[in-house]
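Title: Prediction job returns without error message
Component: structure pipeline
Severity: low
Priority: P3
Assignee: unassigned

Description:
Job completed but the reporter wants confirmation the result is attached to the right record. Sequence as submitted:
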Amino acid sequence: MADIVDIAVSNENFSTLVAAVQAAGLVDTLKGPGPFTVFAPTNDAFAKLPPGTITTLLQNIPQLTRILCYHVVAGKLMQADLEKLTTVTSVEGSPITLDFTEAFEVKNATVISADIEADNGVIHVIDNVILMG
């Protein structure tokens, strides 16, 4: 099995996320033992952000790092584990709300593919970038 970064790199739908993780210097962390639960936005999710947002974030590494860390939770939490919870705390420190009323939702995003297992955790693919606040 591959680690979280290797899985993301091998999937062209995560090229924006991979570039952001590289720019923020988080590759080594996310290749580490973890385990981590990553809510991974697709390229389409990043494309929904207002024009210029990605460029601005790439020029503001502390802000970019905070946003990326908001998409990561310590521990390996499969969908079945998350369904028992209403919130999880991101490694950034802020809570992320979970909702399973109509679909598997994480804050303002819907999980489009859950439980992609990695050596050091699990990836849940989401259709929006989740923002703090």
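Comment from assignee: result matches the submitted record. The domain at 4-126 is CATH 2.30.180.10 (FAS1 domain).
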